[in-house]
Structures are given as C-alpha cells and as structure tokens.
Amino acid sequence: MNAKLQIYQLSDDYLTVSSLVTTLPQYESPALVKIGSTSTTTYVFFGDRWNSNNLTDSRYIWQPLTINGTTVSMTCATSWKIDATTGVVSP
Q1: Contact 48, 60 (CB under 8 A)
Q2: Which of 30, 40, 45, 49 lies most in the core, judged by the most C-beta atoms within 10 Å?
Q3: Side-chain half-sphere of 6: how many Cα atoms within 13 Å?
C-alpha cells in the first residue's frame, strides 16, 4: 500500500541487513544513489506520466539529473544523449 519507506544499512558484503536507518512516510519507487569518484557519470531520472483516462497511453520519461552536493536538479530536454565512453550527457 506504499504506506512507508524503510531504509536499511547493509552488511559490508551486502548480503544481510545490519540495521534500520530510518522510516519515512509514504513514497513510491525511490532510488538511492551514492556519489563519489563519479566525475564523468551522468545520473538519469526515470518516471512515468500516468494518463488516468487511458492507462495504455501512459508514457515514461527519462531526463538527465544534475547532482551538486545535496541538491538535485533536472532540466526537461526534448532531446539528449549520453556518450557511453565518457559518461557525459549532451543536448
């Protein structure tokens, strides 16, 4: 029912849960990202646009994200691409 989101710390080998970090109110399909040594990595937002009048016509949206410290921003581009070698996004 998407009533809460629980975030757990994993063990060093990522095979078990070490502890509950926090519980947040209702969220749907979040994604966490770890930032560090990623100077040429492009982060991408993926979401859906529900068409409640015609669910089969609902569409997905993919947009590049800019992460600067604890701030995340997105500019909706009509066209963009990622260089698979460098990880850099361009219009």
Answers
A1: yes
A2: 45
A3: 7
How many structural domains is the chain composed of? Answer: 2
Residue with tokens 């947009």: 63
Half-sphere exposure of 19 (CA within 13 A, CB side): 2
pLDDT tens digit string along 20-32?
Answer: 999 988 777 677 7
For 8, 15, 20, 64, the CA distances from 44, given in Å and listed in that order, are: 23, 27, 27, 4
Q: Which two tokens stand for residue 48?
A: 């859906």
44 neighbors 63 (Cβ within 8 angstroms): yes
Domain encompassing residue 53:
31-79
